[in-house]
Design brief:
This protein has strands at 11-16, 24-25, 30-32, 46-48, 51-53, 58-70, 75-83, 90-98, 102-114, 121-127, 134-135, 145-152. It is an all-beta fold and 154 residues long. Strand 7 and strand 8 (90-98) form a beta hairpin. The chain has no helices and twelve strands. Helix content is 0%, strand content 51%.
Length: 154
């Protein structure tokens, strides 16, 4: 029969809790959004040292949003990186901006077919942070963030 069953069974959002001005994988200062009014759907994702694991198999929309600032000529790149063997990571999606002496926002997303939660994981990397540029985070408001929404079965 032709009907939609259920709906979104997993949706989660994480954020950085402080500013980042050095390049590399984001491995610390991460928290699930806990601002009053927030709620995840389902079990939610977990992370250890910046490596994020899904709660169940499925096809997930993974979105990475970087917010930051810089002066003219400063750049910031953000990458979603995935592994399908719990070992080697590849960058699969990128967002970036060049500083214009003000705040900027950029985001990218990737539809991740997670067939095995023990081998299919993701992490987030920042590169080319130049000059006075920084990626902004806050423990009370969501600035730089990662969202995970399960769209359907693998």
């Amino acid at each position: 029969s032709n009907y939609v069953q259920g709906g979104i069974t997993e949706a989660d959002q994480w954020r950085t809790t402080g500013n980042i001005s050095s390049n590399g994988d984001i491995t610390s200062n991460l928290e699930r959004v806990d601002t009053t009014g927030f709620s995840k759907i389902g079990t939610g994702w977990s992370q250890s040292s910046g490596i994020f694991s899904a709660p169940s198999t499925g096809i997930y929309k993974v979105k990475f949003t970087i917010q930051g600032y810089g002066t003219s000529g400063d750049n910031i790149n953000g990458y979603i990186k995935i592994t399908t063997n719990n070992s080697s990571y590849s960058a699969v999606a990128r967002c970036n901006f060049s500083g214009v002496a003000s705040y900027n926002v950029s985001s990218t997303d990737f539809y991740f077919d997670i067939t095995d939660t023990s081998t299919h994981k993701c992490k987030f990397e920042l590169t080319s942070i130049g000059g006075s540029a920084a990626v902004v985070g806050d423990t009370n408001e969501t600035w730089t963030n990662m969202t995970f929404i399960r769209l359907g079965d693998t």
